[in-house]
Amino acid sequence: MERMLKLSTYLMAVVLGLAGSSGIYAQSSGSQTQNPSGQEPAQPTQPQQPAKSPDDKNDKSNQDQLPTPPVVAGTSSDAPITGASQPIIGLVASRSYVVPSVYFFGQLDSNGNNSGNNNFASINTIMGSLAVQKVGRASQLNLGYLAGRSFSNQSGTFNSTTQEAAASEVWTRGRWDGFILDKFLYSSQAAFLGGATPFDVSGLNTVAGLANTGPVVLRNSFLPGQGIFTVFGPRLSNTLVAQVNNHLSRRTFFTLVGNYEVLHFFNTNLINSSAAGFQAGMGYQRSRRDTFAVVYRFNDLWFSAQPVSIRDNIVEAAYERQIGERLLFQIGAGPEITFIHDPNLTFTTASGTRVSWALDSLIRYQVRRDVGVSAGYDHFLSSGSGVFLGAITDRVFAEMGRQLSRAWTMNLTLSYARNRNLVPFSSSTLATPANTTIDSFYGGVEFRRRLGRDSELFFGYLGRYQTSAIVLCPQGFCTGSNLVGHQFNFGFAWHLKPVPIG
Asked: Among 84, 209, 291, 484, which one is least packed by beta carbons within 10 Å?
């Protein structure tokens, strides 16, 4: 535990140091900021109110911001399909400020422990956050910290602490641009799919038009998110990603990404995992709307207290079509070769090879100014969410957002994940044969009402359903054939007036 916390603290310190030095360099530069890609300017579009997606938690309601700074436009709004982040759509806050916020988050959950036996819980959480954004001529630094304490009617069972810290910086210089990001999360509630916790679903980590990671929205393949619901209990995740883009010519670009991630559980028998890897890609922008690319991704997964390692290799052909802020479509698919090292795999060999395929896809469509939809499907190899020694994961999601009035918004979301065990595993509390599957469903509706300029109320419903053939009790993962949970959320967010900084 102490070693993990020291490692996470060290990673955060490295990121902050790199971010600070890069920001100082950028401010000392006397050159004018240019379009980093050297490509044709994007088509002019009117600001819209795009729908939020599971990969885009940015609030675009602040329409009085200055135009998006070129460093963000080149690195985030026009994020390359060969990179680790998703393109963001809409205006982005472009001022330097400090924003403190206070939140109250209430939950009524029919199955708070995610167990086979329903365990009703009322959980109230009080949180505070601080967001810092510093915009320079050729860089933008974002720091965010959120901390809270939860209290429950179930004695100390659901009394827990949540801490989230993030640092990111995007930068550009001539034909080069990129970003570095580190995100740390300590929470007792099981994350789902893209690392979303109930707090993320309700948008509480969004302040002054930007999520706490700034204008960088990572793809799911770079997040240690869980695709399996596990019991209420403390867990730690940390993600470190660095990316560099080089625009070789007006239409050709090259991207290199490095990543490291950790998923660690406390007080349970769930499996701790770590992963490190890199991604390289070459892209060609055929026109303002169409981009083609080839991507290679390598990921090395290993597990604490288990002599198992998985090395995954993926080559994808990718295509992107973007029409202003109205349509974004991305797809990448290709062969996947996985090398598995497990001394217990067979009696004659300690390794095995798996040949399969991988696919990543996303579509966002602005039906009209006040209605937007998004959907996607991914097929990839994940760490196993603490239950499996590696999992073959299929993920489907869909969402619709609608601006009901000037003050009211509504969001509908639906997600499904199927995880199939990669490496057989057996212990005193869990036995997972090869090809054991867990199917998880997640969906809900949320209403938000803005109060004044920077505060809002929210309430909604979240439902979850999970089926599995394995049983692990009393610690860690516990379910029979079905897991059902109904959750009603309510609360408010109060963002204090932003304090400008020089």
From this structure: 484
